[in-house]
Amino acid sequence: MASNRVRIAVATNSLGKSAAGHDIQSKLLAAHSHGFDGVELAWECLEAHASSTLFSEESVRERRLCLAAEDIQRTASTLSLEIIALNPFGFYDGLTQEQDIQSRLYEAELWLQICDILNAPILQMCSCIYPLQKPLTPDKHHIASNIRRLGMLAQKYNKVVAYEATAWGIHVDTWQQTRDIVSLVNLPNVRLCIDTFHIAAREAGDPFNATAPIRIDGLRNLRQSLAEMRRTIKPDDIGYFQLSDATVADPNQRGYPRPDLNQPPYMTQSRNCRIFPCEPQHGGVLPVVEVAKAVFALGYRGWVSMEVFHVDMWRKDSSVPEEWARRGMASWRKVAQKCGLESPATNAKL
């Protein structure tokens, strides 16, 4: 491509939890003030806004969500922020019962209508995760059939479906599986969502091991995986790219806002310990820059989203959105430098 300029977004739920009182307006303002080009809108942020007093007179859920989306889009537009994606649509890919599939497709159409209102080009979907208790299949042909139905629905709205493997997915937990499934789907609007955390954690990490957070064979596994990526993935296969690192997790989940000792270890780490890349002062342990270098070496220059989850986001302090937006942009500048990319043009107040 002619330019190395990558457009950079931040996930709205990475700027403070809605349940802790951090509203979408404060998050959009923080993203704007620190120079982001766009945001990845989390469904929980949309729901929280729809539940505010602004829309209390509207009793129909779908209408309330659409009105909230219109309001968010107006604010984002005023701040010259693009809404790049709505996420995460889940609990779908491996379903086997037709009534369950139909129910999720019905919900997906609402999400796609909201994407239209937001002018968001991407509906992000993750693989099925704990604690879903429905009949599921690991069969990639069946999963591809399900996703093809979603992709065809998304084509009606001219939207891309970006499919992500979570490190603790019940039946899909690697980028290779999503690559193979997307290939079987064979629709131009169904692509991959690549996430540095999920790849580095799954291939190399040991989430509860403070002494050795990278497994003995971890770096070798990761480098083999990334070599395979360079051989088998093209830039256009990627819907968008998410960046995050993580600290070591506490297996006892002490002080975590929503403890659940039955959840998979990678889930505990992801939900409570994800930080931005290149933040050694905050204890990041995963080789995520290696993943970023591999993705950009493919020639990928599409949207990048800084997406993290941390216990700190549950603080009620009004400074949380600004603090995490500042950290996110500082992180991106370091990643861009390490990957040989242009620094973002920004109006950031740093």
UniProtKB/TrEMBL annotation:
Residues 30-334 form the Xylose isomerase-like TIM barrel domain. It comes from the Eukaryota. Gene3D superfamilies: Divalent-metal-dependent TIM barrel enzymes. InterPro entries: IolE/XylAMocC-like, Xyl_isomerase-like_sf, Xyl_isomerase-like_TIM-brl. It holds the Pfam family AP_endonuc_2. PANTHER family: HYDROXYPYRUVATE ISOMERASE (PTHR12110), XYLOSE ISOMERASE-LIKE TIM BARREL DOMAIN-CONTAINING PROTEIN (PTHR12110:SF21). This is Xylose isomerase-like TIM barrel domain-containing protein. It comes from Exophiala spinifera.
